[in-house]
C-alpha cells in the first residue's frame, strides 16, 4: 500500500451476497459498476472492474468448494476500491504471504485469473476445493 | 441478462453466427451449443460477429477457443468481427488476437476464407 492509499479517506463499505449460481454473476457485476461510479474511475476502468468481479465469481462457482453463496465486500476509499470475493465455505483467512503462496500454486490455471491480474492493480487469491475460495483485489483511482 | 444468437449461411459457404448481448458464465452455453451444432453439421468456416456483444468474459473466450480448435481439426477456421474497443482489449490482453482473425466487418471476415 503506497502513502497516498494510506492517507485515503474511507468513504464506505458495501456488502453483497449472491447465490453461487451463474445467473447471479451479472448482479455482482452491475453492483460493482454502481459502486465504482462513486469514485472518479473512467468508463474503461469501470468495465475492467466489472470483468474482474465477474471472473472472480465465476472462479468461485467453477472451482470453489461448492458453497451456496458468494460474498462480495467493496471497501471504497478516495484513492482506491478494495474488493473481497469469497465463497461461503471460505474458512481459512490467509495472510498476505500465505495467500501469495496459494496463488502461486497451480490449483487453477486459466484465463480468469490472468484477466483479473491484468485488469486490477493488486490481486491475492486462495483457491482450494476443500477450504473455499477468496480473492482480494485493489483498483486504484487514476492509474 | 440476455444473449441473442442468430445463425445464417453467407454467400461463400461460410456460416455467420451473429451474437448480441452479454456472454458470460450463464449465457456462454447457448453460444457453445450454436457453434457445436454448426460444426457437427460439417460447417468448418465460421464468422462470429461480435458487433452487438456488449460484454464477454473468459467463459465466452473459452467457447470461441474451443470452436476454433474443433474447426481447425477439419481445416477450417473462425474469423471474428469486432470493433468494440473494450472487447478488443480483452483479446489483446489474452493474446487471442494472434490466433483469431479479427475484422472490422463481415465482408472482411468472409474474404479472409478465400
The total strand number of chain B stands at 5
The description of the largest β-sheet of chain B is: 5 strands, mixed
Number of domains of chain B: 1
Classified in CATH, the superfamily of chain A is: Histidine kinase-like ATPase, C-terminal domain
CATH class type of chain B = Alpha Beta
CATH homologous superfamily of chain B - what is it?
A: STAS domain
How many domains in all of chain A? Answer: 1
Sketch the topology of chain B as an H/E string, one letter per element.
EEHEHEHEH
Q: From the coordinates shown, what is the CATH architecture of chain B?
A: 2-Layer Sandwich
Approximate helicity band of chain A: 25-40%
Largest sheet of chain A: 5 strands, antiparallel
Order of helices and strands of chain A: HEHHEEHHEE
Strand content of chain B: 25-35%
Which percent band covers the strand fraction of chain A?
Answer: 25-35%
How would you portray this structure in words?
The complex is a heterodimer of chains A (143) and B (114). Chain A is built from five helices and five strands. Chain A is an alpha+beta fold. Chain A has a single domain (13-140), classed as Histidine kinase-like ATPase, C-terminal domain (Heat Shock Protein 90, 2-Layer Sandwich), CATH 3.30.565. Chain A has a five-stranded antiparallel sheet with strand order 1-2-3-5-4. Chain A is globular. The two termini of chain A are 14 Å apart. The model of chain A is unreliable at 91-109 (pLDDT under 50). Chain B is of the alpha/beta class and 114 residues long. Chain B has one domain: STAS domain (Transcription Regulator spoIIAA). In chain B, 39% of the residues lie in helices and 32% in strands. Chain B has four helices and five strands. In chain B, α1 packs parallel to α2 (58-72). Chain B starts with a strand and ends with a helix. Chain A binds chain B through residues 22-23, 25-26, 29, 44, 47, 50-51, 54-55, 57-58, 61-62, 110-112, 114-115, 118-119, and chain B through 1, 22, 24-26, 55, 57-59, 61-62, 86, 90, 93-94.
Amino acid at each position: 500500500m503506497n502513502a497516498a492509499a494510506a492517507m485515503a479517506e474511507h468513504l464506505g463499505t458495501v456488502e453483497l451476497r449472491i447465490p453461487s449460481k451463474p445467473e447471479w454473476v451479472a448482479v455482482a457485476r452491475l453492483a460493482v459498476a454502481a459502486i465504482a461510479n462513486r469514485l472518479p474511475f473512467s468508463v474503461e476502468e469501470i468495465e475492467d472492474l466489472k470483468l474482474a468481479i465477474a471472473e472472480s465469481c465465476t472462479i468461485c462457482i467453477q472451482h470453489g468448494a461448492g458453497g451456496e453463496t458468494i460474498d462480495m465486500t467493496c471497501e471504497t476509499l478516495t484513492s482506491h476500491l478494495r474488493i473481497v470475493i469469497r465463497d461461503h465455505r471460505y474458512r481459512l483467512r490467509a495472510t498476505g504471504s500465505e495467500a501469495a503462496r496459494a496463488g502461486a500454486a497451480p490449483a487453477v490455471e486459466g484465463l480468469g485469473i490472468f484477466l483479473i491480474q491484468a485488469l486490477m492493480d493488486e490481486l491475492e487469491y486462495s483457491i482450494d476445493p476443500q477450504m473455499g475460495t477468496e480473492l482480494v483485489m485493489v483498483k486504484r483511482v487514476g492509474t | 441478462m440476455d444473449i441473442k444468437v442468430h445463425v445464417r449461411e453467407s454467400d461463400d459457404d461460410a456460416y455467420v453466427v451473429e451474437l448480441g448481448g452479454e456472454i458470460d458464465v450463464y449465457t456462454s452455453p447457448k453460444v457453445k451449443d450454436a457453434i457445436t451444432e454448426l460444426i457437427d453439421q460439417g460447417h468448418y468456416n465460421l464468422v462470429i460477429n461480435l458487433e452487438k456483444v456488449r460484454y464477454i468474459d473468459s467463459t465466452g473466450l473459452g467457447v470461441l477457443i474451443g470452436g476454433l480448435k474443433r474447426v481447425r481439426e477439419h481445416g477450417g477456421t473462425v474469423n471474428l468481427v469486432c470493433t468494440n474497443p473494450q472487447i478488443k482489449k480483452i483479446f489483446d490482453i489474452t493474446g487471442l488476437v494472434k490466433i483469431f482473425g479479427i475484422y472490422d466487418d463481415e465482408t472482411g471476415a468472409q474474404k479472409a476464407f478465400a
